[in-house]
Amino acid sequence: MHRLHPFDPDLHLKVCLAKHLEQSHHMECNICFESFKDTKYAFGIQENCNHCFCIQCLRLWRQKNEMVNYRSCPVCRTPSGDILKFPLWFTCSLSKKLMFACKKRTLALEKYYRYVAY
Prior knowledge:
Elements: H1 9-25, E1 43-46, H2 55-62, E2 83-86, H3 93-113
Antiparallel strand pairs: 1-2
């Protein structure tokens, strides 16, 4: 593995992406048990939980309105208000917080600019 040079952002991005791809290929959905190595599924990343699900299974789980905890993790029942569709798996809490903050900011901007005439 290369040592990351502090002034070479391209190498850093390349190495980090390879690491996350390798980690993602070993994961499987906790509902359908499909491996992410052979499929084209995206991960459904929950805000407050680190269990791994494909986005299709997680959305199906959340559509069950008759369930009391439909916005919670199917495995540990930890409440999680939001989910993120992402092609890579990451467990770093700082990365996860950053991704959800970016999503919320983007949604807020879309809501704000929805009715602006161009």
